[in-house]
Design brief:
The structure holds two protein chains of two kinds. Chain A is an alpha/beta fold. Chain A has 15 helices and 13 strands. Helices cover about 45% and strands about 25% of the residues of chain B. Chain B contains two helices and four strands; from the N terminus they run ββαββα. Classes of the chains: A alpha/beta, B alpha+beta.
Chain lengths: ~375, ~80
């Protein structure tokens, strides 16, 4: 496909890798004292392992896998609420595929479906709206999940539901935003990051300015990156050059997709439909101020929290403990590697996940397991 | 605001509200866009793509030159 193959050219990759090695040496980073770069986005985590970029880059670079996989940061309590909704007799519960296998306290959406709940996988929230139009005697709930890259799609769908008067459609909103958890991580005294690879698709919506605080207030470089191997390698090189030169700037490697000011139509739709919650719970990170979105009172008809009195909309959100010994939280904050978790590859595999990081292909544990293969499991033992 | 997009040979209707920019939809025919969950989210900027590729190619060519110089130096070393 155009704009894909060119960004996988091995000859160019050799050049970028050689320059990465040179700059890493100039910084003086080694395996014992590495430069720590966090890739915020789960799509980047997946690409790093898929293309073996962690093996191709020098030992002096350590990738810390950030909280940018929406399925992975979803607390078990939210999954439980989805299942409560899905098991109501008049409800058709619709979701993106990757959220279906996330374990709640008792079961996943997929297990609820097997037990008779009407749970349907959709590709787009527009499919869910169409389902509502065709089933006027049922309540169709869409599981609105994801960062700013996905939020415009549900906002535009809710606007369309109101325009076309489809009143049996609602969204269970669990949308979250990227900048607040990054600030929480930077404020964590245990965190020792040297720079960031910024999320490409989130940035095509929000633009570059929301990251200014990372450079200006915390003095860390951030480079917004595309998703092909050359995109990632070039972005890592740009971060390293900033570190070498003592600069802290917001740079854009993915300018072919990300305009500096973001996408005005998407931003307007988000602002029209959603408002910031006082706080929202993240798996592994706890409640983070102003990190989640809820549907504005003006659109309450399309808000599943209000319609079914569930979740944060019911006045309080349930807190549910993680499974015993599950290290998802520590992996998420970069404190430990997936293989250090006692359950990795034993009680927790992509087929039978215990923690969310093993569910999504964008989760760090699933990426380690899938591409680290037997070796990763061997290390774990 | 819908349009048909072709993704690796598969055709699907997508919402193009985010990339229409108030201009006639005909302007979008034949352009490349990033599609996410049924929505065209961003038009691919061909000039920016070319600029990024230029930088990457230069790094690749620079490395080829360095490799050639290293090889040349190696072949000039006295042999026993």
């Amino acid at each position: 496909m155009k704009y894909v193959e060119e960004f996988r050219d091995p000859a160019a990759a050799r050049g970028v890798l050689a320059e990465i090695s040179r700059v890493t040496d100039q910084i003086g980073a080694t395996a014992d004292a590495p430069v720590r770069i966090m890739e915020i986005c789960g799509g980047h985590t997946h690409a790093i392992f898929r293309y073996g970029l962690d093996k191709l880059t020098p030992d002096g670079i350590e990738f810390i896998h950030g909280p940018g996989c929406p399925v992975c940061v979803l607390p078990r309590s939210r999954v439980d609420e989805c299942i409560d909704l899905a098991e109501q007799p008049d409800v058709i519960f619709t979701s993106f595929g990757d959220a279906m296998r996330v374990p709640g306290s008792y079961k996943s959406l997929l297990q609820a479906k097997a037990q008779g709940a009407d749970v349907r996988m959709v590709y787009s929230p527009l499919d869910a709206l169409e389902l509502a139009r065709r089933n006027p005697d049922r309540e169709v709930v869409f599981f609105g999940l994801g960062f700013e890259s996905t939020t415009p799609s549900t906002a535009l769908t809710i606007q369309q539901a109101r325009r076309t008067n489809v009143l049996n459609f609602s969204v269970f909103c669990n949308h979250i935003t990227v900048p607040p958890p990054i600030k929480a991580l930077l404020d964590d005294p245990h965190m020792c990051l040297d720079g960031f690879v910024g999320p490409g698709h989130v940035s095509m919506v929000i633009g570059l300015r929301p990251y200014d605080f990372i450079a200006q207030d915390y003095g860390k470089p951030i480079v917004v990156a595309g998703f092909e191997p050359l995109d990632l390698l070039q972005s890592v090189l740009m971060v390293l050059r900033q570190i070498r030169d003592g600069r802290a700037e917001v740079e854009n490697q993915y300018a072919r997709v990300v305009p500096a000011e973001g996408n005005p139509v998407s931003l307007a739709a988000i602002a029209d439909v959603y408002e910031t919650r006082p706080s929202f719970e993240w798996r592994g990170l706890g409640e983070i101020d102003a990190s989640g979105l809820r549907i504005r009172p003006d659109y309450a008809t399309f808000d599943a929290e209000q319609k079914f009195q569930i979740g944060y909309g019911a006045g309080q959100a349930r807190a549910v403990a993680e499974p015993d010994g599950c290290a998802c939280g520590e992996v998420m904050t970069g404190r430990v590697k997936p293989v250090a978790c006692p359950h990795f590859g034993k009680g927790c595999t992509p087929e039978l996940p215990l923690g969310a990081l093993m569910v999504s292909s964008e989760g760090a544990c699933a990426a380690y397991y899938q591409y680290g293969g037997a070796r990763a499991v061997e290390v774990a033992k | 605001m819908m349009a048909v997009a072709e993704i690796s040979g598969v055709r699907r209707e997508v919402n193009v509200a985010c990339i229409a920019e108030g201009a006639p939809l005909e302007n979008l025919v034949g352009t490349w866009t990033l599609i996410h969950v049924g929505f065209a989210m961003s038009r691919i900027d061909e000039d920016e793509a070319a600029k990024t590729l230029d930088v990457l190619r230069e790094l690749g060519e620079a490395q080829e030159l360095l490799d050639a110089m290293a090889e040349g130096a190696e072949s000039l070393r006295p042999r026993r």
